[in-house]
Amino acid sequence: MKAMVVRELGGGWVPEEITIAKPQGNEVLVDIKASGLCGSDQMEMSTEVQFPPPSVLGHEIAGIVTEIGPNVTNIAVGDHVAACLVQFCGKCEECLSGDVGLCLNPSATERAEGEAPRLTDSDGKALNQGMGLGGFAQQALVHENMLVTIPKEMPFPQAAVLGCGVVTGTGAIFNAAQVEQGATVAIIGAGGVGLNAISGAVVAGAAKIIVIDLNNETLETAKKFGATHIINSGEQDPVAAVKDLTGGRGVPYAFDIVGITPTARQGYDMLAKGGTLYQIGMGGGNLELANLGNIFDRKAIQGVFMGSGVPKRDIPVLADLYLQGKLNLDDLVSAEISLSEVNEGYEKLKDPQVNRVVITSFE
Question: At what angle do helices 238-245 and 261-269 cross, to 10 degrees?
Fold first, then answer.
């Protein structure tokens, strides 16, 4: 099959003919119909993190099941599915408690050492499968725990983006913060995840949705998604502006999508007493926050991974919200490209008016 392969760090993606194995155990073979381009894959391509070259990356996928392994129980041939990069065994204490993002045995979704690889190149050498998915290809071989059945009327490009940016942004609102109707929230960073946090806040019924970014075009897009107030942090102090919008009180919920020390600091400082900063982005690696103030103000910081939810539960809900016209996914998909255009697609993402680029042609 055709795939875009990373052969060297920072070298981009090159087209190759590769071989994908037959499903075994709990594996599902998916004909990919849409595959989103996410910044995480670009980071993996350029910086050795978890899946060094040679590798097939791509983790925002949707498609049709063509074959299943003998132990698959909840997915059938012909099902339409979307994937999520959360790898979980479903059997450990954390999984059984519902917190699959803290699974103690995520490697259960991969082939064991000594087994034949899922992906091999034309020389028969193993290829790393990025995030257990490897979606920049015509097909993907995936453990059933990482797949969710979706309604067949759901368009594939919109379905593909559900399992990463959408479930992360909306999940921060629904699961981590449990934002209540009438609440005030501040969202720092209006890229793909930030736009989904805005959408989640709209669905949750937040009365005031304050969005902070450095780019005016991005902030205008945020208004389209439901931001009630926008702040350009390059033109004014965002903490002072948020305090002004809230009568000096601050916000009970702040969401830092950017993930660098200055934005995390801003998020914490704009909190009301008893408020929580939900740290989603990790754009700067380790964050350093000092002098956090009076402990009796009871401000808190909570990390959020992939929306702090259960993808198999949350993604079908998000698909239904989209089909009911309550969740804006159409404006997320800014451009559709072919499989061979992955490198060009990442260039498109540098445009602040481009929210998501999705591969929809795999010939």
Answer: 20
Q: Which of 354, 353, 178 is nearest to 255 (CA)?
A: 178
pTM for this structure? Answer: 0.92
Render pLDDT for 144-179 as a digit per residue (tens, 0 to 9): 999 999 999 999 999 999 999 999 999 999 999 999
Helix (H) or strand (E) holding 64: strand 60-68
Q: For 79-97, how does the pLDDT look when each residue is reduced to its tens digit (9 = 90+)? A: 999 999 999 999 999 999 9
> What is the SS3 assignment for 90?
coil
Contact between 59 and 40 (Cβ < 8 Å) = yes
Looking from the CA of 27 toward its CB, the CA atoms found within 13 Å total 18
CA distance 120 to 91: 30
Specify the length of the chain in residues: 363
Between CA 357 and CA 304 the distance in angstroms is 24
Beta pairing partners, 300: 276
pLDDT at 285: 67
Confidence (pLDDT) at 125: 96
Packed helices 216-225 and 192-204: angle between N→C axes, nearest 10 degrees? 30
Per-domain residue ranges for the chain?
Answer: 2-149+332-361, 166-305
Domain 166-305 belongs to what topology? Rossmann fold (3.40.50)
* CATH number for region 2-149+332-361: 3.90.180.10
Q: Which residues pair with 129 in a beta bridge?
A: 56
Residue 271: exposure state from Cβ atoms within 10 A (0-12, 13-18, ≥19): buried
